[in-house]
Amino acid sequence: MHVPIPAIPVLFRRRAAGSRRALIAAAALLPALAVPLAAPAAPAAANGVVVGGAPTTTDSEPWVVALASRQRFGSGRSGQFCGGVAVGPRTVVTAAHCFGQEALGVADWRNLPDLRVISGRTDLSGTAGEEVPLSDVWVNPDFDATTNAGDVAVITLSQALPDGAVIPMAGPADTAPYTAGTEAQVYGWGDTTGQGAYPDSLRTATVDVLADTVCEKAYPGDADGRYLRASMVCAGVTGGGKDACQGDSGGPLVADGKLIGLVSWGTGCAEAAYPGVYTRVSAVSGLVAQHM
Ligand code: 4AZ
To answer: What pLDDT sits at residue 223?
Structure first.
């Protein structure tokens, strides 16, 4: 048996240092730590994905995948700890921070031999779909773990995904989906309450892309972090209640049929004043293409 999870996920240490959270899949750490899934009373607005969402399936969104390691994160939910997105038959994009030592517990992903990309498994308590080993991972060397800028990694799979379903990435010319007010969908198996309630089944929530000026005001660079418009996009809804949360990291934000963001970070989940922050895919799609 492999060495179990550290007693205190680093995510929490980070959070204690400031309320800003790095988007890590600490979600996945929690179940393995036997945090009850029956969480304390949820905020009134929180009941979904992702918070404030609704069920969906990998049949309808086959490019949504899970990153998983049972050794590290426990077997109950297939070991899920982050999301990912298939952008090529053998290429999955996710967040760089999903490959950090804080998340994996090892400096190199190769030292977590049961690391898999799970495709086609809406319900993580089941065995549907495929668990595909990784053959290579490119973690953006310019990822800045302090600001979370450049939060992207590219996984090359050891075999093609079964159905080959992929979603196109937004490129530099795709400015329309980043316009404030654009509706976008976020997908994931992350915390549905902000209090450690991890669902078995995939969820989605619809959020609005927000203006860079709004994101910059929410995250001006204090303890809550700094929003950087060149490399990030933020999304939320008026009044809060819908958002990505722990465990959704690396998963997709989709608008106009394109991948526009990867779940990256934020303060809390679904709070009105703190939108979710995503890696701006149009800023990194060229880099991704070089590594696929
Ligand atoms: C996390 O810790 C996380 N509300 C992901 C997304 C957001 C916050 C935290 C955005 O994985």
So the answer is: 84
